[in-house]
Each structure stands twice: as C-alpha cells, then as structure tokens.
Amino acid sequence: MPKATKYARVMASNESIAERVASYEPRGLDSTTWVTVRGFVIGSAERLDLGGWASSTRVLRTLTRLGVWALDQGMALDPEVVLDPDTVERFVAEGSAGERSRATYRAVLRRVGPLLTTKAPWEPRPLSVARRQVAAPYTDAEVELLRLDADRQSTDHRRRAARALLALGVGAGLDGRWVTWVTAGDVVDDGGGLVVRVGEPVARAVPVLADWEEQVRDLAKTAGGEFLVGGLSRSRNRASALTASLEVPPGHPRLSAARLRSTWLLWHLSAGTRLPELAAAAGLQGVTVLSDLLDAVPPMPEADARRMLRGASH
Length: 314
Prior knowledge:
mainly alpha, hpI Integrase, Chain A, 2 domains, 3-stranded antiparallel β-sheet, 3 strands
C-alpha cells in the first residue's frame, strides 16, 4: 500500500474516532445527569490520543462512571480533583461493582490520569496522603442571588426543588448524598431547634441554622408524601438532575449542592463552631477536608484572637 494512501486512511480513522467521541452518549444514564457530566467526560476524552473505538468506549464509560460517582460525593468535576490518585482509588473501591470492573476502572484511570492532570501526584507519591479538595463556597451576595433565582423559576416543580436544595444545603450542609432523600418526617423540632435526620452513608441528625429554619419548616409542611425537593424519585443522581434543570439568568451563579455544603461549612468555621461537633454534623470522619476552607475564614480581631489563645474569658 502506498504510504500516502495508508496515511490518508489513518487520518480518516482518527477523524472518525474524534467525531464518535464528540457525539458519545452513555446508555442507561438520564439525559439531565449526562448534561452535567458531559463536559468533564468528553473534554477529558478529547485531550487523549485514543486508539480504536473499542478502547475509546472503555475510556468514555469509565470517565462517565467516575463523573457520576464524583457528583454523588459532592465533588467538583475538576480533573485535578477527580483524577487524583487517592480519589481514583476511592472510586474503584466504592463506585464499582465486582472485581473485574474494579480492575478495568483502575487500569484505565491509572493510564489516563497522568495524561489529564498536571498537579495530581501521579509521579512518586509524597509521604503524606493528598487531601480531598472541596468545592468553592458561595459569597453572601451569591447566596442572595440564588434565593432570588429560586423564587423566579418558571414552574412550581423547579421553584420547590431550588428552594429545598438551597435551604437544606446552606442551612444544614446536605449535598447530593442526602439532600434529595429528606421527607417531612425527617424534619423535627426537638425543643432546641429544628433538626434534619438523614441516613446513609452517615446517619445523623443535623441542626438547621436559625436563619434557614423557617424555610425548611415550610418545605416540610408543604411536602405531603413527597421528598422536600419534590417528587418521589429515588435516583442516586437526583440532585445533579435537579440542579441541571434549573433556569439561571446570565451572570448569576449556578446552584451546586457541593458549593452549598461548602458554604455551610465555612459559616460554621467563621462562627467558631468546634471541629468535633462540626465534623459530626457534617458526617465527616476527620477534619482534614476542612483545611481547604481555612483561607476563606475571615480573620478575627487580633485582641480577640490573643484572648482566645490565652484561654482568658475576658
């Protein structure tokens, strides 16, 4: 075969793979969730020098599964975070079923991870374990915009979903792992304030911030037999589907369950909530993840800090 003809066929094949990657849609995943993770999946795949279509689909399927899992964990779909070696190992252990699929996911992600990241420690690992990064919290001004946008949604279903995601996220720190499963019976006034009871992966009762109690109480009163966000869907990807369906005016922030949780965490850090109690309310096994938010905590007056560090009461 003449070299020019062979080169032309290779180029045509590469173009065909690129077109198929760009138009890829996974089976069995609802369209709203796919819209949310598509940028991460397709954007990552397009940066790789993929071979045949069989190997390309393995990469696409794996990145899709990883992206959906990361959403459920409340993580931002940043390749430097999602494709960090520690995150990959967590996904392989928690987000895959069966030894065979775990081996496939691990092999694919260990191959593409170093190619898609520049900061993730895929080279010789440091002695300390890389910490998980959290999504950026909203500013007070952004929260107010989210409040306004929630009330301006074009349908009752969207208004309710936006109000509930916002109130339970900023008011109780619930992200995609818990926020769509809250029923009216889970909202309890125990005499010391309003609490929301949540289940797995970390069952607990979370006190609602006083400024958000009225919103959460109203959502519970009007939920009927549905979840507070509306509907009866038990999809694991419900939070991402609801946020993707909301209408966002130009220049306004998009509602993110992960960012709402970070905003709640930052509020408590700024207010001086003790770390053991905050970790318990947040469902955290430790406090390492909170270090990502320390730079955003407003400094306290030096005299107050000195008095606190001395253990003085006045």
